[in-house]
Amino acid sequence: VQLQASGGGLVQAGGSLRLSCAASGSVFSVNGMAWYRQAPGKERELVATITSGGNTNYADSVKGRFTIARDKGERQVYLQMDSLKPEDTAVYYCGAGASLGEYTYWGQGTQVTVSS
To answer: What percentage of the chain has pLDDT greater than the value 90?
Structure first.
């Protein structure tokens, strides 16, 4: 499975961005997908997850502002990010695996920068 993340950029606080993660290869083996992020000098943290059944979960810091969605037909996972804050600045990575928490495959990361 190969993952290609895109959609990052520079946005002002309060703005929105939508990240995309396109999957190719043996995607039938993927049941859980997630977005993580890593800010400079900090550890990678979980942002949101989604299962093949569509169940979602979010970090407390993004609840109500971010939405994860999955388009099985197009083999893509999206992260809609609204009401962005400077503390959302990070490199965002998508991960995929046979189950939640076990992400074998990773995208290359996309930079999100939120200016104040």
So the answer is: 79
